[in-house]
Amino acid sequence: MSADDLLARLRGFVGAQGPVQVARHPVSAPAIADWCDAMGDGNPVYTDADLAAKSRHGGLVAPPATLDIWDRPGLPAQARFRPVAKAPADDPRSKVMRLLEEAGFVGVVAVNSELEIARYLRPGDRLQNVQLLEDVSEEKKTALGIGHFVTTRHRYTTADGEHVGDLLFRILKFRPGTGAAPPSMEGARPAPDPAPSLRPRPGINRDNQSLFDGYRAHELRIPRCQVCGATFFPPTPRCATCGAFDIGYTIGAGRGTLYSFNVVHHPQVGGFRYPLPVGLVELEEGPRIVADLVGVEADQLQIGMPLEVEWLDSHPALVEGATDSRGPISVPQFRPATPRRREETLSAATVQDGDRLPLWVLPVVPTQIVAGALATRDFQDVHHDRDLALQKGSKDIFFNINTSLGLMERYVTDWTGPEAVVTALRVRLGAPAYPYLPLTFAGSVQTVDADTGRAVVAVQATNELGPHVTGTVELELAP
Amino acid sequence: MTRHTYAGQAAIVGIGATEFSKSSGRSELQLALEACAAACADAGVEPAEVNGLSTFTMETNPESEIMRGLGIPELTHFSRIHFGGGAPCATVQQAAMAVASGVADYVICYRAFNERSGRRFGSGVQDRPAGATAEEAQFAWTSPHGLLTPASWVAMFATRMMHEYGVTSEDFGRVAVADRRHAATNPAAHFYGQPITLEDHQASRWIVEPLHLLDCCQETDGGQAMLVTTVERARDLRQPMAVIEAAAQGMADDQHMMRSFFRDSIVGLPEMGTCARQIWETSGLGPDDVATAVLYDHFTPFVLAQLEEFGFCGPGEAKDFIAEGAIEVGGRLPINTHGGQLGEAYLHGMNGIAEGVRQVRGTSVNQVEGAEHVLVTGGTGVPTSALMVGAYR
Ligand SMILES: [Zn+2]
Questions:
Q1: Mean pLDDT lowest for which of A213-217, A391-395, A427-431?
Q2: Is residue B296 among the annotated active site residues?
Q3: Rounded to whole angstroms, how far apart are CA atoms A330 and B3?
Q4: What CATH superfamily is the domain A3-182+345-476?
Q5: pLDDT at B127 > cutoff 60
Q6: CA of A468: how far to CAs of A35, A339, A426, A434, in Å?
Q7: Alpha helix segments (H runs only) across B244-349
C-alpha cells in the first residue's frame, strides 16, 4: 500500500465516533482523597467538607485534572493480567492504530494532552465519554522517526448528558529506527563518573569533627560558643567574641537563602555532574556555607531564592567505625525550598504578566509513581512494574500522564490558593519521569486579566533528561 | 598616619627573567638560576655580592640550591611568604626591610616554575588527598562540594559583585581586552600579536560561570627575579633605580585563602584595602599621582575590586571607571602594560613587578608618559601584598 493510499484509508476514520464509554463507579470522596494523597495536594475544597461548603464551590469537588480518570476500564483492561483474550476494540482510534501497525508504524508515544474543564466534578457524578477521531496527520519526519500524529477528542458528560469537559489527546505512531541519528560523540571527552564517592573527602580533625559527626546524622550543626552563645562558621577552637575554648554547636533548621553561586564547567572531575551549580548559602541562623545546588538549572538560580537542605551520603567508610576523614561522609546540598500552599486565594489584581512561581523540586520515588498511577486509575504495567517496564525498553517505571498533570495542577493551585478555578490544562510531553531523577517545576504568568480574573500560567517540569512536561494551566483567580 | 621607616631607602636595581613558555624543557631550578643571574647581570652586580634571598613558600627551589648555583658564599637573610600569588610584592618588602636595616646588602626576590608543563595551579586541589592540618582542613568547606579550583572560588565573589553593583560579564571582559591589547605589542608576551575583542571574550567558553575562559590568566613556565639594595648603593649601579616608595602586606576581617566567603560583605577586597592604606600613608601619594598600575589579574573581576580598594574610584564604580578604554594605553590609568598575567605570562605577579620597574625606567614597550610612581599589586582574594615604585630624584 502506498503512503497516499494509507493516508486516505486512515483519514477515512476522521470524524468517526466511538461507542459511549461509561464509568463503572461514580466520582467518590474516597477516590478523590486517594488522588490528593498521591499528588500531595492539600487543597481543602477536595477533602474538607466543611471548608468546601463555605467555598465558591458550595461543597466538595474533584480536582479538575481527574476529568478523564473516572470512566477508565481499570485493571480488567490489562491483557497481561486477564487470562482471556478480549475482542479487538472498535473505536476509531484503535482501528487507525491497527492500520498503522500493519504498515510498520509500531512505535507509539503520547505527545499532547489537553483537558478543558466546563465544570468541576462532584462526588456522585457518574461520567461517560465519547471519542471522536479528530485528525490523522500526513507522514512527518520526527526526532523519533517517520510517523503520523493521531488526534482524538473525548467529550465528557454526566450520565444525564450534562457536558463537564473535553480531552484532546495526540499520539505519534512511528517507525522505530527512522529517527534522527544521535549526535556524534566522536572526539568528545567522556563525562567523568559522577558517583559521589569519587568526590574529595573533607579533611576531618579535632576542630571540625563535631560538624562532620552531625553531618553523618544529617544534622546541620553550626559551631556555637557555649559561654557567650556566638555562632560562626567555619569552626575554630576559640570563641573570638569572648575568648572561651568551650565550643559546642546548635543544629540549623536546614533552611537558607542563596547569597551567591557559580556554575562549574571546567575542569571536570569524578564525583560531580557538570555543569555543576554551587551555592553560597546564607543559613536562617546567620552563618554561610558552601553547598551544591540540586534540582535547579543554572538559568533558574537567583540570589535570594529560598533553599532547603537535602543530604547526600557521599562516601562510605574507608575504615569501619572511623570518625575522622576515613569514616563515612555526608554533605549538605541545597534545593529550592518547597513552596508552601497558599491559604488565601490570590487576587488577579496582585498578579502581573511575567510573575514567576517559586521553583518546586519533587524528589521522584517509585512509591509516588505507583501511587499516582493507581490513584488516576491507570493500570498500565510500565507505571508500576519495573521488570515489565525494562522489558518494554524503558529504563524504569515512569509517571503516567495523569500524575504529571495532577502534579502540575497542584503546583499551580498551591501558588494561587484554594479557590482558583482551573479551566484548562494543556501539556506537551517530553522526557520520561523516572525514579530518583528530581523533577523541577518552574512556572510564570503568561497573561492575567485583572477584570475577569482569568490567567494563564506557563509551566515546565524538567529532570536531567530534559523537559518532562511543558504546558499551560488556565484558571480564574479571585477577582 | 603611619609611615614605614624603610620606605624610600631601598630600590630595585636589577630585573631578570627567562622566556615565558608553555613548556620550558628544563628544570624549575635552572629557570630560577637563569632569572636570578639575569637580574644580577642587569644591575651589574656579581652574584657573589648577594647575601639575601626572598621567595614564596610555594617555591620549589630552596634558598640553599639558589645559593649553590649562583656561587653565593654567605646568606644573612632568607625569608618566604605564604599564600601563593599574594606574595610577590611582599618578597620585595622583605628585601627592602633587610637592606634598609643592614641585615643584608643585596637581596634577590625570585619565583620560578614549570607551572604549565608541570604542576598546574589552575587545576586546583582536585588531586590533593584530604589532609587535616588547620590549613588543609579549610578545604573541607569547599572541595566536597566541587569548588576545587581558583576559578571556582573567584567566581563565587564575581556573581555577588554582579548582583550588588550591576557589573556585567562585558565589564570583566574589558579588563581582558586591555591586557591583551598591551600584550599584543610586547614581544616577551605569550599573546604577542594576538589582541582580542569584547566579542571574543563573550564567545569564549565557560570555565566557571560567570567566568569565561578569557577571564582567566594563562599558565606559564618561566622564572622572574629582582635584585634589591639600598638607594645609596643603587646610585652607583648600571640601571636607573626603581625606589621602593612603599610596600605592604595585608590580611583582613575573617580572612581565608581565596575563599573568604563568610565575611559580612564579599564584594570588596578588604585585605587589599589594608595594603592600600599603608601604600598611600607611607608613600604620601594618592590615586591622582599614579599614571599606570600593574594590578594582579589572575581573574578579571578582582581587577575591578582593586581599583575601588585603592580609591581610583568609589565602591561599585569600577565598571564605569574602566569604560571607554580608561585602563588601556592612552586612557586615564593604563594597567598591566606588559599584558598582565592574561597576556604576558603567569609568574605569580613577579613579572608585574618587573613591568613596574620598566615603567619607572621608561623602557616599557607600552611606556606611559609621566609614570613616576607605579603601583603593583599581589594576588587577589588571598592574603596579599602591594608595592609602589618610583623614580629616584
Ligand atoms: Zn564566646
A1: A391-395
A2: yes
A3: 51
A4: Hotdog Thioesterase (3.10.129.10)
A5: no
A6: 21, 20, 13, 10
A7: 270-283, 301-309, 318-321, 340-343
Domains for chain B: give ranges and CATH numbers: 10-118+217-391 (3.40.47.10)
Give the residue carrying C-alpha cell 485583572.
A450
**E runs forming strands in A387-429:** 421-429
Does the CB of A329 have a partner CB in chain B at under 8 Å?
A: yes
Looking at the partner chain, which of A201, A204, A278 has a beta carbon nearest the beta carbon of B146?
Answer: A278
Put simply, the answer to whether A264 touches B147 (Cβ < 8 Å) is yes
Domain ranges, ordered by start, for chain A: 3-182+345-476, 196-336
Ligand 1 geometric centre to CA of A249 (Å): 12
Exactly one of B106, B110, B165, B346 is catalytic; name it: B346
Please state the pTM of the whole predicted model.
0.89
Q: Which residues of B touch A200 (CB under 8 A)?
A: 125-126, 128, 130, 139, 143-144, 148
Segments of B2-119 assigned E as strands: 10-17, 52-56, 77-81, 107-114
Grid coordinates representing B268? 570588596
Report residue B306: phi and psi, to 5°.
Answer: -65, -40
Angle at the Cα of B245 (from B240 to B248), degrees rounded to 5?
130
Q: Which of B118, B122, B344, B347 is nearest to B216 (CA)?
A: B122
CA of A222 to the centre of ligand 1 (A): 14
Beta strands B107-114 and A466-476, pairing class:
unpaired
Residue B392 is a catalytic residue: no
For the record, the C-alpha cell of B199 comes out as 566579542
Contact B126 A269 (CB under 8 A): yes
pLDDT over 60 (residue B129):
no
Give the per-residue pLDDT at A183: 58
Range A385-407 average pLDDT: 92
- Residue in chain A nearest B140 by alpha carbon: A202
A201 touching B (Cβ < 8 Å): yes
pLDDT tens figures, A228-273: 999 999 999 999 999 999 999 999 999 999 999 999 999 999 999 9
Catalytic residue among B110, B165, B296, B392: B296
Residues whose CB is less than 8 angstroms from the CB of residue B348 and which lie 6 or more positions away in sequence, other chains included: B56, B58, B84, B85, B87, B88, B111, B113, B379
Q: Which chain A residues are within 8 Å of B145, Cβ to Cβ? A: 278, 290-292, 331, 333
Is A189 an 8 Å CB contact of chain B? no
Q: How far apart are the first and last CA of chain B?
A: 24
CA dihedral B4, B9, B14, B15 (to 10 degrees): 10
C-alpha B341/C-alpha B218 separation (Å) is 6
CB pair distance less than 8 Å for B146 and A201: no
CA distance B248 to B283: 11
Write down the pLDDT at residue A449.
94
Cell of A153: 477528542
**Of B137, B146, B160, Cβ closest to residue A272:** B146
Residue at grid coordinates 590549613? B135
Mean pLDDT of B353-376: 97
Place of cell 636595616: B101
Q: Is A189's pLDDT higher than 90?
A: no
Interface contact flag, B160 A203, Cβ < 8 Å: no
SS3 state of residue A225: strand
B210 prior amide bond cis, ω within 30: yes
Per-position DSSP letters for B220-238, written without gaps between them? -EEEEEEEEEEHHHHTTSS
Interface contact flag, B147 A278, Cβ < 8 Å: yes
Position A190 pLDDT exceeds 90: no
E runs forming strands in chain B: 10-17, 52-56, 77-81, 107-114, 206-209, 211-212, 221-230, 242-250, 292-294, 373-377, 384-391
Q: Please tell me if residue A198 touches chain B, with a CB cutoff of 8 Å.
A: no
Find the closest chain A residue to B155 by CA distance. Answer: A262
